[in-house]
Amino acid sequence: MDEIALTAGVLYVIVLLRAGGTFAVGWLAGAGVRRSRFARTTSSVKFRRAERAIQRWGSPVVAVSFLTVGFQTAVNFLAGSMRMPLRRYLPALFVGGAAWALIYATAGLGVLGVLRRLFAERTAFGVSAVAVLLLAVCGLVVYRRRRAVPSPGDTAADES
């Protein structure tokens, strides 16, 4: 249990620094945009309405974003760039970050324990499992790249 508590504590500090830093970078980027040639866009009625909605109702989204993969950085950056007040952002950061740290500490330590046992008791099976996993990831990358490249027939149809 001490190992989980220590891991969760370290992960909690990491997520607070990372997400808080992303929020701060978003805040600075938003300030820069407000002083740039896009200032007219950020002062429009629609933008102000969206900004007020995020400032008021964005806290639950920030907290829940920590339960997703890849979405939390965008949410924290957007919360900063849209000037979510710290009194709303910080509680969401603390709650969401705690959930993230606990999930990753328990699940992460569980997976590491299984891998440790697998390699200690059945090394050949462990090496085979890692090789299959790497091949699957490589196959997925190749598949996605091939789908992303348009075939010569597709470009000709688009120009018509």
- Silhouette: flat
Q: In total, how many beta strands?
A: 0
> Biggest β-sheet: count, sense, barrel?
none
Helix content: over 70%
* H/E element order: HHHHHHH
Query: What is the alpha-carbon Rg in Å?
Result: 22 Å
β-strand percent reads under 5%
Unreliable residue runs: none
Residue-averaged pLDDT, rounded? 85
Structural class: mainly alpha
Number of helices: 7
The termini sit apart by: 65 Å
Give the SSE layout:
Blueprint: H1 2-34, H2 39-42, H3 45-65, H4 72-81, H5 86-121, H6 123-148, H7 152-159
Helix pairs in contact: 1-4, 1-5, 3-4, 3-5, 5-6
Explained architecture:
This protein is mainly alpha-helical and 160 residues long. Helices cover 86% and strands 0% of the residues. It is built from seven helices and no strands. The chain has helices at residues 2-34, 39-42, 45-65, 72-81, 86-121, 123-148, 152-159. The radius of gyration is 22 Å and the shape is flat. The termini are far apart. The relative contact order is 0.11.
Features:
160 residues, mainly alpha
Short description:
86% of the residues lie in helices and 0% in strands. It has seven helices and no strands.
